[in-house]
């Protein structure tokens, strides 16, 4: 169409490697799709016929929203099949064009494409216009359900991105989703106008307002002791008969309620385990889409075998990074930027490297560190930093600098090996040696759009922060993965396997 519902794309694609071995999992996204539009302009006068501002439009950006945005975000790390009603109109054709990296199984769509248009002047929002729809799936029958069932077969996880269009209220589709929930992890991102999560879902992800509203609508509302966010999370888990509920609460992070352990004799109706996962507060001009970033990240982690709490922790990090990087508007700006590949010839300087990457389009992110004995904390931080933009440059302290900062026995791994390991990571576009102990001069030369550091730092710890602000860049601190430390690893290695004094010290440091 595809007005007859013919699939777009190759449903036979399979992952090249098992997800647990670092390959790309296969993820299905089921839900309601929108076309998000940003209209930028300037206001210099009022209309002569009414006291309203006149916006002189300078740029229009558009991209898939709702389940479409969730699918694009999942597709950054997975092979994705998207099941959603898509209108047979010009905007529907634009959605299909922009979803070319995703296998689309379209359903018939009631009415024109749903659109959300945000009008801004000098970055300040003036009005949002919603039109189109209603977007309800039409003509869903047993043949349709079987086609959706086939599309979900072989997936490692399913994300239900409910945007109130009616997909989650269609009985036959709910049957297919319930079957999937019994087979693979199913994440349900709910909407106030949508259907309840299907029983057995691995994780349901309402925000605090959605959770409180859903709890008030239960046949037996929660007791007064359970009206706080943590209590509501567990009340909903039991009422919906799902494995876990994560309630996101803005700067407070997330509260996760999970089922009791299988071996403690409890029933599913028994109070579960509630954990609070704090976050580093993030601030940006456009928080829209943070819920989709969160849901896409937890779905990817569950597809790779993580437990719900671990997946939510990663989702909180990703959502904070999303807001700090400009949200949905920043995402659309990056997608519409010119995308020319960065030349592979070695740049003569940091200035040239920064210029080349900015010319390639998108947001340039940079970070720094010793990265001695690369561990999970490093990788988590680098992955989160890379999600802030299209290019990530890592400034790596030289051996001389590491010795000055960490002591005469460091680095454990010499510079050439540290660079080689960093450059092998998919998240890292370039690793550059930095001989200074702190990166202010290098940052001034590179001029990244975003300077990212682990959350164990504060702004007062970062002398380079003033440099970043001086040219209009942003400083983002990413939540720190606790319990990971190069110094701690080094101490464990030395305690477990003392090195012979006959080995030269230079070899001991590089072993």
> What is the helix fraction of residues, given as a range?
25-40%
Query: Low-confidence parts, pLDDT < 50 over ≥5 residues?
Result: 1-18, 263-267, 338-346, 498-511
Number of strands: 19
Shape: globular
Across the major sheet, the strand order is: 8-5-4-1-9-10-11
Main β-sheet description: 7 strands, mixed
Strand content: 15-25%
- How far the N terminus sits from the C terminus, by CA atoms, comes to 60 Å
Summed over residues and divided by their number, the pLDDT gives a mean of: 82
The Cα radius of gyration reads: 25 Å
List the total number of helices: 17
Q: Briefly note the structural class of the backbone.
A: alpha/beta
Structure description:
With 511 residues, this protein is α/β, with parallel strands linked by helices. It has helices spanning 67-74, 90-98, 142-152, 171-181, 208-216, 229-240, 290-303, 308-324, 327-336, 350-359, 376-386, 399-406, 415-423, 440-446, 465-470, 486-496, 505-510; strands at 26-31, 33-46, 53-66, 79-85, 103-109, 115-121, 124-131, 137-138, 157-161, 186-189, 203-204, 244-248, 254-258, 273-277, 364-369, 391-397, 430-434, 450-454, 474-478. It has a seven-stranded mixed sheet, sandwiched between helices. A hairpin with a 5-residue loop joins strand 12 (244-248) and strand 13. Residues 1-18, 263-267, 338-346 and 498-511 have low confidence and may be disordered.
